[in-house]
């Protein structure tokens, strides 16, 4: 699984997925999820994608200037 970012709202996380999956066709076959987590008194929404080789996907995104991290 790849984490693609943490956002202040679910809508912003979904918009980021739309942008990223439109820009990088190799993301379109992945399953997207938004996971809410508490951080102090705020809720953050983690954008994640599952499927394929997470390490390879993250490397390709980083090469293109995007940030990501491999989860589990």
Compile the SSE list and pairings:
Elements lengths: L1 E6 L2 H14 L7 E9 L2 E9 L3 H10 L5 E2 L2
Summarize the structure.
The protein is an alpha+beta fold.
- How far from one another are the termini? 7 Å
Order of helices and strands: EHEEHE
Annotation field: number of helices:
2
Walk across the major sheet and give the strand order.
Answer: 2-3-1-4
- The Rg value, from CA coordinates, equals 12 Å
Helix content: 25-40%
Low-confidence stretches: none
Largest sheet: 4 strands, antiparallel
How many β-strand runs?
4
| Secondary-structure-derived class | alpha+beta
Task: Note the overall shape.
Answer: globular
The average pLDDT value, as a whole number, equals 95
What proportion of the residues form beta strands (DSSP E)?
Answer: 35-45%
Any overview of this molecule?
This protein is of the alpha+beta class. Helices cover 33% and strands 36% of the residues. The chain has two helices and four strands; from the N terminus they run E-H-E-E-H-E. It has helices at 10-23, 54-63; strands spanning 2-7, 31-39, 42-50, 69-70. The protein has a four-stranded antiparallel β-sheet. Strand 2 (31-39) and strand 3 form a beta hairpin. It starts with a strand and ends with a strand. The mean pLDDT is 95. Residues 1-72 form the SPOR domain. InterPro entries: SPOR-like_dom, SPOR-like_sf. Pfam families: SPOR.
